[in-house]
Specification:
With 151 residues, the chain is α+β, with helices and mostly antiparallel strands. The protein has six helices and five strands, in the order ααααββαβαββ. A three-stranded antiparallel beta sheet has the order 2-1-3. It has a two-stranded antiparallel sheet with strand order 4-5. A hairpin with a 2-residue loop joins strand 4 and strand 5. The longest helix is centred in the N-terminal third of the chain and has 21 residues. The protein is flat, with a radius of gyration of 19 Å. The chain starts with a helix and ends with a strand.
Length: 151
């Protein structure tokens, strides 16, 4: 019985992963950006406002944002995860406490984004032979390019 349960679990993971791996989002980057902007605007219009710059906490912002994305019929289910990740990987609701997006470029030219609690926490810890800069956008989805910070 134990092996049967383990086997069924393993099979569900394999087939479940394959099903999700094949689901592709057909929206353009402009459409994804528009859906993100619509969700943020809807959260900003709530009472009390819970948009990127008006939420009192990151959790409050992400919760509202996820609800708005899930309620938007123009966003196919296979695209929602990418949109929601942008909200989760943002400083929305944290700006007043000094949080920043941080773009670190390694000596090999690979740029990665992270959230840091302060600008010095970003720029003072550049990779060896690389660089670090504070992003001007609140989400890691927009903050960095392949070579550093986005304008």
């Amino acid at each position: 019985m134990r092996y049967l349960a383990g086997g069924l679990l393993a099979m569900s993971l394999v087939f479940g992963t394959a099903r999700w791996a094949n689901a592709a989002c057909d929206l353009t980057q402009a459409q994804l950006d528009a859906a993100r902007a619509a969700a943020d605007a809807a959260c900003d219009a709530e009472d009390p406002p819970r948009g990127c710059t008006t939420a009192t906490s990151h959790g409050q912002y992400v919760s509202c944002f996820v609800h708005q994305v899930n309620a938007n019929p123009a966003v196919p289910p296979e695209c929602r995860g990418a949109i929601k990740r942008c909200a989760a990987r943002s400083i929305c609701g944290k700006q007043a406490r000094g949080f920043v997006t941080c773009c670190k470029t390694s000596s090999s030219g690979t740029t990665k984004c992270s959230i840091k609690s302060s600008a010095p926490g970003c720029t003072d810890h550049a990779p060896a032979g690389g660089s670090a800069c504070v992003g001007t956008h609140p989400s890691c989805c927009d903050a960095c390019t392949d070579t550093g910070c986005a304008p």
